[in-house]
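Much of the work behind modern protein science is quiet bookkeeping, done one molecule at a time. The protein below has been through that process, and both of its lines are reproduced in full.


***
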Amino acid sequence: MAVRQALRLRDPDGSVHLAAAVHLAEAAHAGIAASRAARQLRGEAETALADARAIAGSATSKLVDGEPGAVLLREAEAERATVLAVGSHGRRRAAGVLLGTVAARVLRDAECSVLLAREARDDETWPRAVVVGVDGSAGSAVAVAVARSLAERFGGTVRALASVKDDVDTEAARAIAPDLDEQPGRAVEALAAASEAADLVVVGSRGLHGLRALGSVSERVAHQARSSVLVVRSAEV
């Protein structure tokens, strides 16, 4: 899922790097069976990486021992990635924060854009229907530019959406997206509802990281949406 969508978003001149993490420290909890547990964990990671290579073809790949979220963040930094793609297990934000999921970690701490990939209706045409959040900020202007670029590449549509209840510079938002769809509800709820009929929701980031990012609109949309979500921290995709 994440591999396929990363390949779709990749620039024609870009590349994809696959990283799989095996957290061997977890095997220590198995006590006397630790050695067997470690072999099982490594085997599962190797199988997952092989499956990803079969999809991605010539992509580079690496198997790394470590906590998955930390591994992905280090690999993204080392590769100077513009997008870090991870799959979603369907958990909502509260569960994600409590469980410390990989998706929650990279959404909070990644320096680059993050794609939270969910199952697509059609892998061959994804993403044809794109929704983008607009609040008048510079970050939302970048998100709109990215959404329009993707729609142009894939022959899709863009729905620019703003919430009148939130902290929105309406005049600036309309200048960014003249076809703005102004919704009466909160941005998170409006974007989550719009995701039901979308392939991808694109939101900008205000540059918050770590604990400061908890509860941000982009982080909450990423966890509540039904479609894949692209949190844009860079003009490049």
In short: Residues 41 and 127 are 33 Å apart (CA to CA). The chain has nine helices and nine strands. Strands lie at 17-22, 60-65, 83-87, 113-117, 129-133, 157-163, 181-183, 200-204, 228-232.
